[in-house]
Specification:
The protein is mainly alpha-helical. The protein has two domains: 106 residues, Serine Threonine Protein Phosphatase 5, Tetratricopeptide repeat; 109 residues, Serine Threonine Protein Phosphatase 5, Tetratricopeptide repeat. It contains twelve helices and no strands.
């Protein structure tokens, strides 16, 4: 059964695509030079901009059409997957992100794919299978690797496997790094939460205190640390 084509979105006539040269060339390689290639490139450009501006509804509209016109262009599938993810439509997001991985051979969006699996209630083995290649890839962006760690460790914690979740976070926190980025603080916050749930209040206190030392305004860390200290023996 064929899926009905999405309607062509309104595309500005006086605007040119703002895409990397390599992406523009890939679109032209697949579609050839001409109006269709220009329209798909413009749709991708507008969709990417809408994602950056936190307007996923706009992004989905233009990118779904671009995907229908050029389903084998990996970057279009990637962008549409991100847009669906931002709309919390985890089934469609997972489908697009899996297509992106197949077409590109890259796993740099596996943190989002793993989070989709978690949101959809998939089993731990599947979540780990998707998250781990990104966690292990030292050439990948550090923030994305950290997010993959968070997804995997949080899923383990939710399943009652607190020791395993804590070990996943601990190993990543022990990696060499230049400083304390936001994703490192998020990792420590999760480490504190898992330690608290496991009854290791001293470790939880240490992790929260390390966050306060860097950024006392991070989430509710000060209030949580105060509450934790009141529970210490």
């Amino acid at each position: 059964m064929r899926t009905e084509a999405p309607p062509r979105p309104p595309l500005p006539e006086d605007e040119e695509p703002q895409l990397p040269t390599s992406v523009q060339r890939e679109i032209e390689r697949v579609l050839g030079r001409g109006a269709k290639s220009r329209d798909v490139a413009l749709a991708l450009s507008l969709g990417s901009q809408a994602i950056d501006e936190d307007r996923p509804d706009v992004a989905v509209e233009v990118l779904a059409w671009a995907r229908h016109e050029a389903p084998r262009i990996a970057v279009i599938r990637e962008a549409l997957g991100v847009a669906y993810y931002l709309r919390e439509e985890y089934g469609p997001a997972l489908s697009e992100l899996q297509a992106y991985r197949r077409l590109s051979g890259q796993h740099d969006q596996n943190h989002l794919a793993a989070d989709c699996l978690r949101a959809l209630g998939r089993d731990l083995d599947r979540i780990s299978e998707v998250a781990q290649p990104l966690i292990d890839d030292e050439s990948a962006p550090d923030d994305r690797r950290a997010e993959a760690v968070i997804v995997r460790a949080a899923a383990l914690g939710d399943a009652g496997e607190l020791a395993a979740g804590r070990a996943v976070v601990r190993r990543f926190l022990e990696r060499p790094r230049d400083g304390d980025e936001e994703h490192d603080l998020r990792l420590r916050y999760l480490a504190a939460d898992l330690a608290d749930r496991a009854g290791d209040l001293r470790e939880a206190e240490q992790q929260l205190a390390s966050i306060v030392a860097v950024d006392p305004g991070f989430l509710d860390v000060e209030q949580r640390l105060d509450g934790l200290r009141q529970r210490l023996p």
